[in-house]
Amino acid sequence: MSVTDGPETRHVRPATPAEATDVAAMHAANRAAWDEAAERYEGWLAEAIELIRGGGTNLFPEELELIGDLHGRCRRAVHLQCAGGRDTLSLWNLGADEVVGVDFSGRMLDLAQRLTQATGAPARWILADVLDTPHELDGTGDLVYTGRGSLLWLQDLDAWAAVVRRLLSPVGRLVLFEGHPIEWLFDVDEDGRWVATDYDYFAGPEASKGWAPEYIDRLSRDDADQSWKFARAWTLGEIVTAMARAGLRFERVTEHPRDWWGGHRDVRSDERGRIPLSFSVLARAQAL
Predict the structure, then answer these.
(1) Measuring CA to CA, which of 96, 135, 219, 251 is 20 to 30 A from 192?
(2) Residue range of the domain that includes 55
(3) What percent of the chain has pLDDT over 90?
């Protein structure tokens, strides 16, 4: 099951050939959809404030192991596709001197700013498509972080990887924790056993309205009245190749059974751990 194709989502179709070649238009559609989805994040703001004020983190153990203690070793952490800022400020709680979040949803960044005001975090929020991340940040990221459902909304991986490369400081690290593209190929039957879906691993972008309930939950407006959005399950090969082509040097690429968005809670306990549902990357910029 994908995050765009839950049982409550009936409006799903392949992107048309014209849509699939227009990256800017697909990203603009996604921006509108995420502005709508911010409605759910607004409901989570009080919880986020409590978490960050308490010194907590919203990151998974796999991410924490890769990121480590940032105290004294991270002047700036840059979080690409930061949404409402809860994960971004988790990096501050891990010891980053300053955090910068980049996202294309103004409504999401309004929430991030409210979170900053409530916690006093040294955070800066930049409204931009990740592919247009300002060059003033080039070479300043001792940590560049992105994770959990970010890459599938991008329609140009080469451009994204080039942004990551230029943001990294000479000692900077990229930490990526993301859903594994193979999870789109599996769901569970009524007995909680893994079964194959009819998803095409190499299909390219798909358009959808509505959200899987485990991912965003239902919005106040009907699915049919929501904006079209475009997701793409980039293959693991495409992701790694784009990063290598941009000049990133891999230190670790690891696959995990972690159900990163809770879309497979109904899997039997003896079936868990058999399929990679997420993966992580630790990489640095190669010397020019």
Answers:
(1) 219
(2) 11-285
(3) 91
